[in-house]
Amino acid sequence: MARDLAIDLGTANTLVYMKGKGIVLNEPSVIALNRQTGEVLATGREAWQMIGRTPGYIVAVRPLRGGAITDFEITERMIRLLLQRVGVSRFTRPKVVICVPSAITEVERRAVTDAARRAGAADAQLIEQPMAAAIGADLPIDEPVGNMVIDIGGGTSETAVISLGGIVALEAVRVGSFDIDAAIQSYVRREHGIAVGERTAEEVKVAIGSAEPADDENQAEVRGRDLMTGLPKTVILTPEEIRFAIDDVVSSIVSSVVRCLAKAPPELAQDFLVRGMYLVGGGGLLKGLAQRIERETQVPVKMSNVPLEAVVLGAGHCIEHYDALKSMFMGARR
Amino acid sequence: MLVTIIIIVVVALVVLLVIIGMRRRPRQDEGMQNFRRHIDALSPEARREVHDRARRHEEGRN
To answer: Is A147 inside a domain boundary?
Structure first.
């Protein structure tokens, strides 16, 4: 008998929680395929290391973009392999709870559940990422108080106000940390005339990327391909440049938080001033982002203790208390 | 005769209404119980187990 699973099927990373065991898998959502035969060559971390470094016959792809499945067949194969890695076989079919962006369309929802069922799940239920994040971040959502959670993932940023176990207000944008990487890539190409890969752009973001100026800032040396000569070239990037490059993306995230605050009922809005908002997700780790949101909203922002695992832990809690919490699943409410 | 039939019909209707009322009440209770169970399952005590498991996982990784 298979143990039931909770899956955070993120644009950047996929995490799997097994009932009674905890987090059993945490890997990048990447799959490497042989372009000619369609054969899977690697998944997860191994496939991630291949991005931008593959020969012509291999393609390393992220089958999810903006939290949605862009290639159904590849996603299904990736989920199947991930389930196999945690012990699911055709004879052991577990119940699965999958975290998805709240702005997901009906078609996208069906694509995720179909992919999970075809990959070996007996039953696949969906839960909104901000709700799962609030449960996983250990916010007191069982109380009649306003809890606000900001989940910034690879492809989506979602802000939700939660009270008494339900979502009161929600705001989602299909913008996330991959858009920050893309903005850096495009800036370096435009201003310095060199092409850099997405992994290099991510490294730059982690090293010197920030949403607000700080005291201890350093420059970063970046190597890429000169667009004019085609030769390798090194340039120095400053934190100010990167802040300028990513400002549109950061502003779009902050604006969605402001819109969500405006949607909250006044009784709950006053709770935020006392309790603050909680930031989760990998994108929330961008330096100075909490301070930027705090400055623009005048509401304190706190970082979750488990920013990267909050969503899967919340979904894991739902799988542990499946019967009591099944009304939270997306199909149950629509 | 007519009076007896009317009385029987009225009594039957009352019994029917009582039965419907009794059937409805548990359903309302059920709603409250489900909501209670839902809220209890989200309490910090209920969530502690999952967080302890995550902490152990984190410690194991370090």
So the answer is: yes
